[in-house]
């Protein structure tokens, strides 16, 4: 019999015991079922679970509740060493030590005959399936290697520097190896010249002094900005060349024809993309619904390139695509997920050419809600290739020779259907963080021309909304058919982040009241109150940082940012492997012919795929971000001493990060350069506060700075502060009120005082960090 309190409600100990007995598989629904709770008891249950989470007794992740130190069943881990018996020991690759303490150790169980791709050693990174150990001694977790993702680096990328006596030194590009220069003998330079970007094989050295290296490959002069993206490509081990087998399969592929397809070649579908897009994998069409029962409604067609027809499971093309996970976009090049023959030819929906596609036809009611949908394998012919600005100009009364004939029959119905769909979107009220995205434009020689912020038009929003509708339809169809799929999921913010946001808003006297379930509307309400206010950019940044990071998962826990219960990526299989899996699942579910998801694919196998492509997505994001930083640092290297205006984009104990208004570059103002007084780091305010004057430098402040140093290889800029809106009358502008919890002084600038131990935070486990700048339509510029 289950223990209950005086009110007939299960006590805390009984609930915690049930959670511990069902690690990682418990949600509020399972707890309610176990203890026979009715709907009226749900509010009390949620309150108790919040208290348990606040006390650090349980942890909530993806709508599942577990013990604080529970690891997910599949995770990415780094193999860090061996135990006394010689067995491999690993730790989670993503772990927040500040909030969760030391990362747990995982004992790797190696079979006598490892499967191909699972043999690992110290320094490798691997995808593991983990579970709690039943042993009372040793690591609390044990794991089995699913796949080795990265081998320990025996090759380093760096800049070759010649020595007068011959030979040279390698200055590593990776900051982790910045203090590990390699000596390169004259015979091992491989013809490299001073300033060349080279990859070097490490030659192990037994003696003291520098280790030696041998130049393996010359990648060009680092003085050329065209070589800068190569740094990120090699540093992050992004595959640059396709296998010979994959190239052969791509060249041998035959164009799709009508066999097994519906003929949609007379449907005037159009593509709307950026002006510099090289592949066009989605096309749209809309028309008013002539059904008298749906007066004011629309039929929207979204056609997506049929990549699954060409890239079959288990082929060399499939293996290469899975290894890459996604395309990677740099200012000067694209590293595609698929060979050009597929991505830029057979699967590019160019005007006038017959192309195979997987299409979804959606019926929208006059309220904008989707009433029904159906999927079709088709042969289509694009009626036109338009840019966003071109389509918008036509609607705004400035059509050109191409859009003029399309205005009434194609573009006006598309915009009318979007206006209809927008009603449902506004009612759904997804997270409204429409932050500007900057784009680097290059000259013909690869140098930076300028940085622009493209105007966000209704044409962008139209395509985005139709892609979201198509993605939802795909997820709903596969759930209805009980087929496994890879969801695009976005967890709600953790309680800790919500509490931190509330504390921050309180310092600005901005009301923030949370009642009931957490919804995007809560954050939208705050942003709407501040629109047009000086605080708006600051609060937008803090709200963004409070959000979780989107990822792929075979388990659905919803999409918080879009406020959707189910969501899957369907609309870009040319550049995202997740979409290809969804296409294959639809082909299988609906019996649409060749290229279906194999019967061997299960939620368990797809969980491994989801974990892998989540990693490749983060790898791409990091590589893209680093390349932009290096390009801009290279561009500013000859402007040392110049003055700029910017905004504080980050506050740390080390100083202030500033984003320049002119080009969006980020750089650091070291805390030691802020003045002669000591500055405390106020975490709740996202600010540095002077202990004597009360001067406060806060996230979002507008500042004038001077560029002191630019390091193109590291992609780093260093500034000094000239003036700030915080200076002069800080108390009048933004009064400093001491917080209940004492500020943490910067260790290098504050008097040495013994500080009390910090209170242990309640959240345990891994924390998703960063923001996802996926280029997939339906989520541009968002954290999901």
In terms of per-residue confidence, which ranges show pLDDT below 50 for 5 or more consecutive residues?
728-783
Cα separation of the termini: 44 Å
Average of pLDDT: 83
Count, helices? 18
| Spatial order of the strands forming the largest sheet | 3-4-5-7-6
Q: The biggest beta sheet, please? A: 5 strands, mixed, barrel
Shape: globular
Your description of this structure?
The protein is α+β, with helices and mostly antiparallel strands and 784 residues long. Helices cover 27% and strands 25% of the residues. It is built from 18 helices and 34 strands. The strands form ten sheets. It has a five-stranded mixed beta barrel with strand order 3-4-5-7-6. A five-stranded antiparallel β-sheet has the order 10-9-8-11-12, with helices on one face. The radius of gyration is 28 Å and the shape is globular. The model is unreliable at 728-783 (pLDDT under 50).
Show the helix and strand layout:
Elements: H1 12-21, H2 28-35, H3 42-54, E1 59-61, E2 64-66, E3 74-82, E4 88-92, H4 97-100, E5 106-108, E6 125-132, E7 141-150, E8 155-162, E9 168-172, E10 182-184, E11 196-203, E12 212-221, H5 228-235, H6 244-252, E13 262-264, E14 270-273, E15 282-288, E16 298-305, H7 307-310, H8 316-324, E17 328-329, E18 334-335, H9 340-346, E19 354-364, E20 370-381, E21 384-387, H10 388-395, H11 407-428, E22 439-442, E23 448-452, H12 458-480, E24 487-489, H13 495-507, H14 520-530, H15 536-546, E25 551-553, H16 577-590, H17 603-636, E26 643-652, E27 655-660, E28 666-670, E29 679-682, E30 687-690, E31 696-698, E32 702-711, E33 716-724, H18 730-733, E34 744-745
Parallel strand pairs: 5-7, 13-20, 14-21
Antiparallel strand pairs: 1-2, 3-4, 3-6, 4-5, 6-7, 8-9, 8-11, 9-10, 11-12, 15-16, 16-19, 17-18, 19-20, 22-23, 24-25, 26-27, 26-32, 27-28, 29-30, 29-34, 30-31, 32-33
């Amino acid at each position: 019999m289950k223990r209950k309190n005086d009110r007939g409600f299960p006590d805390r100990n009984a609930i915690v015991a049930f959670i511990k007995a069902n690690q990682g598989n418990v949600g509020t629904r399972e707890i309610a079922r176990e203890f026979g709770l009715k709907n009226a008891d749900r509010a009390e249950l949620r309150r108790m679970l919040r208290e348990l989470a606040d006390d650090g007794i349980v942890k909530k992740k993806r709508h599942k509740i577990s013990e604080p130190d529970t690891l997910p069943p599949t995770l990415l881990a780094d193999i860090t060493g061996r135990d006394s018996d010689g067995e491999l020991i690993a730790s989670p690759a993503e772990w927040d030590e500040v909030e969760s303490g030391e990362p747990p150790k995982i004992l790797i169980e190696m079979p006598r005959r490892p499967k191909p791709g699972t043999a690992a050693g110290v320094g490798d990174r691997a995808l593991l399936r983990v579970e709690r150990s039943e042993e009372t001694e040793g690591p609390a977790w044990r794991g089995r290697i699913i796949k080795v993702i990265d081998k320990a680096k025996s090759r380093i990328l760096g800049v070759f520097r010649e020595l007068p006596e011959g030979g040279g030194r390698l200055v590593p590009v990776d900051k982790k190896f910045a203090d590990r220069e390699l000596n390169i003998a004259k015979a091992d330079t491989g013809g490299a010249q001073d300033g060349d970007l080279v990859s070097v094989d490490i030659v192990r050295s037994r003696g003291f002094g520098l280790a030696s290296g041998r130049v393996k490959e010359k990648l060009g002069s680092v003085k050329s900005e065209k070589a800068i993206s190569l740094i990120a490509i090699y540093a992050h081990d992004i595959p640059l060349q396709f296998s010979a087998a994959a190239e052969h399969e791509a060249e041998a592929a035959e164009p799709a024809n009508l066999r097994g397809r519906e003929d949609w070649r007379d449907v005037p579908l159009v593509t709307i993309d950026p002006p510099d897009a090289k592949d066009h994998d989605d096309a749209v069409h809309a028309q008013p619904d002539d059904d008298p029962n749906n007066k004011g409604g629309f039929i929207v067609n979204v056609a997506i390139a049929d990549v699954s027809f060409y890239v079959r499971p288990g082929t060399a093309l499939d293996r290469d695509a899975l290894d890459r996970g996604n395309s990677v976009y740099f200012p000067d090049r694209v590293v595609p997920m698929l060979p050009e023959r597929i991505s830029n030819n057979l699967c590019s929906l160019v005007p006038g050419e017959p192309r195979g596609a997987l299409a979804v036809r959606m019926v929208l009611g006059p309220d904008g809600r989707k009433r029904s949908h159906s999927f079709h394998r088709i042969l289509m012919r694009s009626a036109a290739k338009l840019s966003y600005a071109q389509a918008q100009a036509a609607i705004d009364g400035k059509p050109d020779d191409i859009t003029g004939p399309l205005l009434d029959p194609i573009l006006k119905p598309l915009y009318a259907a979007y206006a209809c769909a927008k009603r449902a979107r506004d009612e759904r009220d997804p997270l409204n963080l429409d932050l500007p995205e900057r784009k680097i434009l290059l000259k013909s020689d690869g140098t930076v021309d300028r940085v622009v912020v493209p105007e966000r038009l209704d044409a962008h929003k139209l395509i985005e909304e139709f892609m979201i509708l198509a993605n939802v339809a795909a997820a709903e169809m596969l759930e209805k058919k009980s087929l496994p799929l890879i969801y695009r999921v976005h967890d709600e913010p953790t309680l800790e982040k919500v509490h931190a946001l509330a504390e921050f808003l309180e310092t600005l006297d901005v009301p923030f009241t949370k009642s009931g379930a957490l919804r995007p509307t809560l954050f939208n309400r705050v942003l709407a109150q501040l629109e047009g206010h000086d605080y708006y950019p600051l609060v937008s940044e803090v709200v963004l940082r409070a959000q979780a990071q989107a990822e792929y998962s075979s388990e659905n826990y919803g999409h918080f940012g879009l406020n959707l219960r189910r969501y899957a990526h369907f609309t870009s299989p040319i550049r995202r492997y997740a979409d290809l899996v969804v296409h294959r699942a639809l082909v299988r579910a609906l019996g649409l012919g060749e290229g279906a998801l194999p019967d061997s694919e299960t939620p368990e196998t797809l969980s491994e795929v989801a974990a892998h492509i989540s990693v490749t997505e983060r790898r791409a994001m990091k590589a893209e971000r680093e390349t932009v930083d290096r390009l801009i640092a290279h561009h500013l290297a000859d402007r040392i001493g110049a003055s700029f205006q910017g905004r504080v984009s980050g506050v740390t104990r080390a100083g202030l990060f500033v984003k320049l208004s002119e080009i969006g570059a980020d750089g650091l103002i070291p805390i030691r350069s802020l003045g002669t007084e000591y500055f405390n780091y106020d975490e709740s305010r996202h600010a540095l506060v002077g202990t004597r004057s009360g001067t406060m430098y806060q996230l979002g402040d507008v500042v004038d700075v001077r560029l002191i140093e630019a390091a193109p290889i590291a992609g780093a800029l260093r500034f000094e502060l000239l003036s700030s809106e915080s200076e002069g009358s800080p108390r009048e502008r933004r009064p400093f009120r001491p917080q209940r919890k004492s500020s943490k002084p910067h260790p290098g600038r504050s008097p040495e005082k013994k500080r009390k131990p910090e209170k242990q935070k309640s959240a345990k486990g891994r924390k998703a960090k960063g923001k996802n700048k996926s280029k997939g339509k339906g989520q541009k510029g968002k954290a999901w």
